[in-house]
Amino acid sequence: MKREHIDQWKPHFLDCSPMFEPLRQAGQLLNQLEQWPTPDQLNHLLSVQKPNIRTNTHHPLRFVAQTTSTSLFEQQYEPRTYLCGELQTRAQNWHDLFNALAWMTFPQSKAQLNALHYHALKIAEKQHRSARGRLRDAITLLDESGILVTSSHEDLTYLLKNFEWKTLFWENRSDLLQHMKFFLFGHSLYEKALSPYVGMTGKGLVFHIEPSFYQQDLHRQIVSLDNKLANLLSTKSITSTDLTPIPLLGYPDWSPDNSNATYYDNSDYFRPRSSRKTT
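Above: the chain sequence. Below: its structure as tokens.
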């Protein structure tokens, strides 16, 4: 990823790519700022856009400045968010800004992920374990690099899960745009979308939905998807095998280059399955 611009504030960054579409409502006031938002400004944005976001301990979410590292469990990043509702946010940092916007966009799912992190960390602390374990590995991948895939067409889902990328993105392009949609979830992916590059890959979680989903406006789609993901996270212990790699720049119009069929012939990016086992 190219990072030359990483500290440069771009007030209209959400208009740079269709990949930012899910965040636009939450971040629409950011284009009025000439400098990086402070935690107070993010809290104002939160009060305007999503005033009732709470953690699973029912604490109102609020953004606070990043503090120095501490050995106290309760003051560490995930526990502090879970126990107090305080989300530490670094200044002039795209990664943390996108995390803040993700909280505003997918509040139920982010709160559930935070709760899962907290309880896993608490168990690890009691058992004096430093390794993250399978659950935290999976939810970290989802939190950082997740992409939520909605599909009302089983054939398209089959193509995606079996890495039939050219068939999915090019040969079925019209059906794809009608029956399958990608929503970036992971805040690391949003950061990468500032400078997209061939090789940019997300970890997909597929939701089978009714065709009527696509008749709803974007806000209702996101609320519905947030609810579905939060319910899934509260009822199922996901693992990394539940997440399928997806070359994001293959989705129509997510790269200016993918309007040509030969774009999908790059097997280093659009990789076939390593085995012929189907899903």
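Confidence is low (pLDDT under 50) at residues 1-5.
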